[in-house]
Amino acid sequence: MIIKKVLFLISILTTIAFTTRDSIIKSTSVIITPQSSLKVKGTTNVSDFSCVFNINKFKNPIQVFYHVENGKIVFNKTALVLENDCFDCGGRAINNDFQKILKSDKYPQITLFLKEINQTENMRDVQASINIEIAGVTQDYKIPVKVKKSNDLFISGDLVIRLSDYNLETPKKLFGLISINDIIKIDFQLLIREK
């Protein structure tokens, strides 16, 4: 009877060992260096605009939790928080408009949740799955990302989103003659250093 119990326990432990071998949660912390850039670009029916995030305002270091599962790097509770008031669109009036569009009085942050990355052999061109929360609404995206590794990790890419997907309304200027287009582009080039 005892031998059967021991064999049963060994078989359970062996099964757990083989099924969780690749899914052990690891953690690290990273710093987004000042050489990085993050911009939100948009257009109006009159001109283009660009809102630049102040990279020095990132709350470094950023904790990263991940495990490997079926050839993917899966992230747990890994988020990049952007304070809305750290964007500079080039002038007080457009900065105020940008804050109103994002409903910053009620939702002062944009949060990017990193979900998973599909690994490739060279890890240069990967696909990242992320969730973006703006003004209390979360949307899922899959985006191609370029990765270069030397001493640090350089990650670059861009993502096109629609303001209407987040229930955001753009202000109208000069009796409705100037309006911001619904589609905006997030352009990022992040130089990341492991702490």
UniProtKB/TrEMBL annotation:
Transmembrane segments: none annotated. It comes from the Bacteria. Residues 78-190 form the Lipid/polyisoprenoid-binding YceI-like domain. Gene3D superfamilies: Lipid/polyisoprenoid-binding, YceI-like. Pfam families: YceI. This is YceI family protein. It comes from Mariniflexile litorale.
